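Preliminary data (for renewal application), 1-deoxynojirimycin complex.
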Amino acid sequence: MNNLRSVLSVLLLLCLLPITFNSAQTRTQWQNSPDIERRVEALLKQMSLEEKVGQLNQYSYGMPTGPSTGRSAVEEAIKRGEVGSFLNVTDPALSNKLQHIAMEQSRLKIPIIFGLDVIHGYRTTFPVPLGLASTWDANLVERVSRIAAQEATASGIRWTFSPMVDIARDPRWGRIVEGAGEDPYLGSIMARAYVRGYQGETLGGSQSMAACAKHYVAYGAAEGGRDYNSVDMSERQLREVYLTPFRAAVNAGVATLMSSFNTINGVPGSANDFTLNQVLRREWNFRGFVVSDWGAVGELIPHGVANDLASATRKGFLAGVDMDMESNAYFKHLANAVKTREVPQSAVDEAVRRILRVKFALGLFDKPYVDEKNAIATLPSANVAAAREAAEKSFVLLKNEAILPIRSGVRTVALIGPLADSRADMLGAWSAQGKADDVITLRAALEARSKRDGFKLVYAKGTEIRGTSDSGFAEATAAASQADVVLLALGEDSSWMTGEAGSRAFIDLPGNQQQLLERVAATGKPTALVLFSGRPLALTQVSSKVQAIVEAWAPGVQAGPALERVLFGDASPSGRLTVTFPRSLGQVPIFHSMLNTGRPAVGLDLTRPPTNGNEKFKSRYVDEQNVPLYPFGFGLTYTSFEYSATQSSAQQTSVVELNAGRGQVRVTADVKNTGSRVGEEVVQLYIGLRGTSVARPVRELKGFQRLSLQPGESRRVEFTIGRDELAIWQSGTTYKVEPAELTIWIAPNAESGTPTKIMLK
Ligand code: NOJ
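Predicted structure:
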């Protein structure tokens, strides 16, 4: 029997191996295809300098997504071969019209590549990326991105400016909503999932679009959380944290990257020779192309590293920015810079090669037009189930004093708040072709359910999202008073307060929503808050007043049905935080992988002044605790889980073996569903290293697994830890495992778990 089993497993492995191998290969092979290289070289030989520079320009046509600096008379420009790409063309008839000009009236017939911000869906709007990350479900994120690619390519979009893989640790920054949160390991898993979904098995597939990892790099570390602001950080932090998800995207075969607006140690991301030429090209061997962010080449002037557009052109281009988005700088100045020998001709050739390589890989030369009949005109019903599933899995239950799920047989439910029925706000920042009309709100879903289940629904808006008038409070409290349970739908508006240029200096509930919440809570009715936000909010004053909190982010077109199912227990909440929720704004930045300091402080008693030096001289606030309100990885379910202590396969292991890529540490823990409902747990693996050459984070996430467990069911979870998880950056491109004491936690979040220790000798 055992023999039969091993024969079968070998056969299975043999069948699977070539598939995984080939799949990984086809996904990246566009970079080294002899056929593509031959066609690129043949074309390059025929191009004039002006036509080469033409390929390096991108213009916005249609809805602007930045301050307009673009050019007019684009049709003539296409004929002259001056446009390599357009962004924001969403009408397939228009894209075909422009493409026909390029393919029929320009000398060399080089197709245009059309790009768009397809960030979390095209027509079918899924949860915002921070919500998608909260699912901790890479397969789901890949599926969602695949659907986005299918819908967008049907309209002629073969390039998306996604994924945003910026690590973000400051909730003030509006763009925290566009990424996967604070952690480089999770960020890398998500980066890979998006790239695989968008680019499919092969870039040449008609439903594949080139992905664009952005914003390269460290944009998420903007000082003070103010958008576009400067960044200053050590090379260690850059390499170990902020570059990590970009590297994962490059390894997954991402076709393009977008250079960022911010400075990095004084040098703007869009003029940064170190990050672009050194790290991306020389160290990582990236063979795709880099597009600047909108106007970022021109912005080298206000940054102060260029005096005029001509020097901005030289600096951006020589640093490795291949395509100029909307600065109109390369168009005006690059050819001249080549003529005056300030820019070598060979550098222009190389940039053109990179762009043509991607255009050939996408199959644009062979199939430049989109079939207008296939364009998505209405919400595709086949994709609605995926939108609901993604939303359901993205919700994070932060607090629950036994009021959720709402019990069947409830007689009256009050739904109160400005987000209960706001279709547009459910779409979230960057909704591509998402339409508010496609959204089913919480109010609509509850109305349908109230008819099915026979309860009474009372609705009151209460206030506006950023409202100051309390004229709706009386109606709201009257609604609450007659209810058995109150649902408060509060939070942020998604277009103004979140996303690009949506930084906030306060991270409380906006307007007078806190007052509304307090008035409703004063009725004494059991109250659950459904929070719609694009960032962690400081919820200390909120959580003390309500019995339950569901963080719902911006859930997309299926917001209402997904919420209604979770609130009534048809589905269980299973999301986990990928960003730390602070107790108060003053703790920011706060994230799970901080260092320990020489004077760590735990268990502070803030109710009395410190009585002696041992209590006082600590790394602490005198008026706030150090711990967050809800830690990274946290999220409740409708059941409970118990973890055994973490167990390891050995007490010590050899650093030499680990560095050779051979040694591995195996760790396990038993996880049991101790409640009475089936539930999904995200089991997380954290490590900490002591005794190393540099101080390491208290904890670093290095793995996770999603499990579904029946009531009473227990499962042994196993992880292996090797070189990739343990190596520490030394200098240049060198990483090494060092002798150390390794602590390992298999835990439900970043602040719990019973660890085991292993010596790395
Ligand atoms: C500026 C944003 O920073 C970037 O993320 C986006 O892709 C471009 N505009 C294009 O819309």
